[in-house]
Design goal:
It is built from 16 helices and 13 strands. The protein is α+β, with helices and mostly antiparallel strands. The chain folds into two domains: 2-140 and 304-346, D-Maltodextrin-Binding Protein, domain 2 (3-Layer(aba) Sandwich), CATH 3.40.190; 143-301 and 371-427, 3-Layer(aba) Sandwich (D-Maltodextrin-Binding Protein, domain 2), CATH 3.40.190. The strands form six sheets. A three-stranded antiparallel β-sheet has the order 9-4-10. A two-stranded parallel ribbon has the order 1-2. A two-stranded antiparallel sheet has the order 3-11. Helix 15 (380-398) packs antiparallel against helix 16. Keywords: Signal, Sugar transport, Transport. This is Multiple sugar transport system substrate-binding protein. Residues 1-24 form the signal peptide.
Amino acid sequence: MKNRMIFFLAVILLLAGCSPSAETESIEGKLEILYWNDKMFDDDYGSFVSMEFPELEYEIVYLNGGTTKELIDYVKQENPDVIFMRYHDEYLQFIEAGMLAEIDTLIKRDHYDISSMHQGVIDMLRNNEQKKLYGLSPTFSNMVLFYNKDLFDTYRIDEPQDQMTWDEVFSTVSQFHNVEGVYGFSSQYSAYDLIEIVGKTYSQRIISSDHKQEIQILKDGPFWKGVFEQVNEAVQQDNLAVRETADQLDPELSKKDLFANGYSAMTTGSTDIIRKYNAAGKKFNLGMVTLPIDPKDPDSAYSLRADTIFGININSNRKQEAWEVIKVMNGDTYAKIRSKHEKILYTRTEYSKEVSGVSLEPFYKLTRNQRRFYSTDLPTEVGRPFYLMVLNELNEMFSDNQSVDHSITNIKEKGEAILKAGGVNMK
């Protein structure tokens, strides 16, 4: 509560005397904004909107969860002026449904500065059939490859470099095979998630869907066999720890963050890894490079995501007011003030230089993500059993109870049965 009050006072002091800003017009009346709930909007943006537009009353239309299709139907029913979208594919589906007003015209008219925003995020938002902007995202997420510089120095192993391939990463992982008590790589995620991370690098997903929503499992068989073999070999040689196998060296290790505590040489993740590293006492010198890439598209990071996107409802009667609020939430002042209290990745790049003395430069190096992973929108009652089934098959493979080929066959056959039983349209 004390920190929240300090933050609110900081907003007041920094905004005092400069409201309305040069970038916005004074507005009043009532505006409806789609967001998670009142408290979350107030925590994230409310202070900025209220200080910039003291005469404006806003009402939060609660985001009711569910699939994107359900959300589109909900927005048609509730008709909020500002639409919040949870991820990039959802944004694209809103565009395809004709629900969003384009904002390039407004940006040009108001001379609204987007040049200081992460160009990769802007390009991603413009990557639609019309090649226009229909929304802006004040923050983004990305992943990088972290490594323990001390372990690489001690065992005279070449340090990771930017734009490595996953083949190169697994080759590096194997060099720690004879290092007692240390994994070459550990993941805070499950085996399913790690395999999906590798697949997405090459535009592959365990469950893939096209624009017709026809779903396939492990579509590119030879590709997935190669990934399964790499991961399985690394696990069986005690070079790789995923969440399910973290107790291979010592059961007590499963209770700890392996990388942050110096028990693994590499991991992948976002800025949360830096926080865990700091919380564990900075036990080693931290290194950081870009996430592994597809050599066919070396400047692209699939993990670069705009996951908080705001757009204008094309059916709104208050488009100008909605635009003014979106400008504030994506503005320089918001990023400048917020970044002093919450260290996340801001689209206004000037305000995401470092976290606790650790440079965030690798998060910004790969500037493109033109891939589109069509959302399968699987309901929880289908997606969860599928996920658990895959984990079980992977664990059987890791335990050497079944071959890679057998695991892949089981995942396809059992997966299709689960999806069909849930009414999912299979190709």
